[in-house]
From TrEMBL:
It is found in: Cell membrane. Its main location: membrane. Keywords: Cell membrane, Membrane, Signal, Transport. This is Glycine betaine/proline transport system substrate-binding protein. InterPro entries: ABC_Gly_betaine_transp_sub-bd (IPR007210). It comes from Alkalibacterium putridalgicola. Pfam families: OpuAC (PF04069).
Length: 298
């Protein structure tokens, strides 16, 4: 379910100068305007509670080249709408982005280099459980401990889910990757209606993983309730035993602060995906490669 956060549209300044010479009416783009000036020194972001939002706020403090810049938070859908519009018009835009995400399947995009390492190295998505989960639900624990897949798997579901709902996209992926699913459930006994509270985040990447693991668990006899909440709430709920398990946290950077706060009361079952990346993303047609290539606001 998408978070219904108000979207404040980003104003993209694409200035043009009318030249009147000998009665001519040619229009010429103002090539003197910097990327920052064209973007009004604004980065297009997603939800305020997202880990990449907090990391980008740190980047605004760390980089001299981002002095005076602002992060415009809205929603994942809002960010994608503005990215679509900018690319349709071949205008500049800088967004907070990550892989896996279907936008990399749709467009030619690139991450800006991060010399200061604010966004960290490639990350891992972890499976985490409340204390006592293994003893209470050993069959579910075994499946979730075996759960492991690739960035491309999640990304393919996210892309298909632009045309169908996530449940159908997940079901199609499961059917096409039954050998992988069988490796998660091999040797695990079925149960009869045991309920599981699965915690997740309300973003497309986690909607994909939650839809897949929910259906796999349900096929094994579990009743799964998916709780989509912000990261801070999810980690607290795990620590307090209100949620049984999650396959959503990104570590060590994106949700690392929450693990530091609640890690002693949570069981980290290890990564279920590796090679995820977060950072600032631009279209390939933009002549910029690094965050340090930007200029501070005047």
């Amino acid at each position: 379910m998408k978070m219904k956060t108000p979207i404040k549209l980003l104003s993209l300044a694409s200035a043009s100068l009318l030249l009147a010479a000998c009665g001519g009416e040619d229009t010429t783009e103002d090539s003197d305007a910097s990327i920052g000036e064209q973007l009004e020194y604004t980065i297009t972001g997603i939800e305020p509670g997202a880990g990449i939002t907090e990391t980008t706020e740190r980047a605004l403090e760390e980089y001299d080249s981002l002095e005076g810049w602002e992060l415009e938070t809205s929603s994942t859908a809002g960010m994608m709408g503005q990215l679509d519009s900018a690319i349709d018009n071949e205008e500049p835009i800088i967004v907070t982005g990550w892989t896996p995400h279907y936008m990399f399947e749709m467009y030619d995009l690139k991450f800006l280099e991060d010399p200061e390492g604010v966004y960290g190295e490639a990350e891992f998505v972890h499976t985490m459980a409340r204390e006592g989960f293994e003893e209470d639900m050993p069959e579910a624990y075994a499946i979730l401990e075996n759960f492991s897949w690739e960035v491309e798997d999640m990304q393919s579901i996210m892309l298909e889910a632009q045309d169908v709902d996530f449940e159908e996209a997940a079901a199609n992926w499961i059917e096409e990757n039954q050998d992988t699913v069988d490796s998660w459930t091999e040797g695990v006994d079925e149960v009869d209606g045991q309920e599981i509270e699965l915690g997740s985040f309300p973003w497309d990447s986690e909607r994909a993983s939650s839809a897949v693991i929910s259906q796999v668990l349900e096929e094994h006899g579990f009743e799964v309730n998916v709780n989509n909440v912000d990261p801070s709430i999810l980690f607290q709920a795990l620590a307090q035993g209100e949620v049984d398990v999650t396959v959503a946290p990104w570590l060590p950077t994106t949700q690392g602060a929450y693990l530091e706060e609640y890690g002693d009361e949570i069981v980290d079952m290890g990564p279920n995906m590796e090679g995820t990346v977060i950072g600032l993303v631009v279209p390939e047609y933009m002549d910029i490669d690094s965050i340090e290539d930007l200029e501070p606001a005047e």
